Amino acid sequence: MAYPYRQIVVTGGAGFLGSYVVERLRDRGWQVIVPRSEDYDLRDMAAVRQLYADAQPDCIIHLAATCGGIGANRANPGSYFYDNLVMGAHLMEAARQLGVKKFVAVGSVCSYPKYTPVPFKEEWLWQGYPEETNAPYALAKKMLLVQSQAYRQQYGLNSIYLIPANLYGPRDNFNLDTSHVIPALIAKCAEADSDVVCWGTGTPTREFLHADDAARGIILAMEHYNEPEPVNLGSGQEISICNLADKIARLTGLRHRLLWDSSQPDGQPLRRLDTSRAEQFGFRASIGLDDGLKQTVKWYRDNVQLKQAAAGV
User: Fold this and answer.
1) 0.70 cut: is pTM over it?
2) Does 168 participate in catalysis according to the annotation?
3) Correct CATH for 8-310 of 2.40.440.10, 3.40.50.720, 3.30.70.1450, 3.40.50.300
4) Which of the following is catalytic: 20, 40, 80, 137?
């Protein structure tokens, strides 16, 4: 195929989702540059300008984020707001100044209002305030959409905004201080020598998207979508946290009970995305939750647990 972009910069390309995006891009023959945080602090406009001067990109896929689960969001609302807001603002401003051909901004499903009817439609993004524990992070990520549409209107920047469902899969972050629900449950259940305490009531529902499916959706949008409206990327499957925990307990062979600490927050009550807009450029998720969970548990056992065992942890 003819490649419209010579150099693609993927911020956060060394991270969880980023590793899948970079792998798929390189498999397809794209030239990809992954900036390292120790070389370029994206919160610093001078560093962003230096990155662009060094890389000479004509397409940016912005995945870099300061993020974590509910506990991490509660502990770091200020830094999660500032870091994500400033990174996006600097990267897009420099991109429009330098005439970058395309900017792919990846937002967060947390940006939807706390009480959004399911399935979430993109036009409902502004119908209320996000769930409180995630709100600072969610609003900072949502400002990427505002900036994207404003820059398209004023400067003609071809910027698009994608909203993936909750991500999971091999290579995820299993650190209990910062991880999201699936890796946290896998780590807790796999390592348990007593009953496992889970946050909340277990009644909220979530839609999960395998990171490899998300990467495929991002690249399809980069290649084929050029409109101002945001686009959901989801799997079409919804599951309660309680049922999810039961699945993970079985897959990990948990021999103890799952207990629910209702003094801890549930987060958003319901979450499932309308993905009809993404289907217009050919995206449908291909990895079902059961298969994806099996892959993720196996990866955890083959990598995290084996490394811990080798280190005597």
Assistant:
1) yes
2) no
3) 3.40.50.720
4) 137
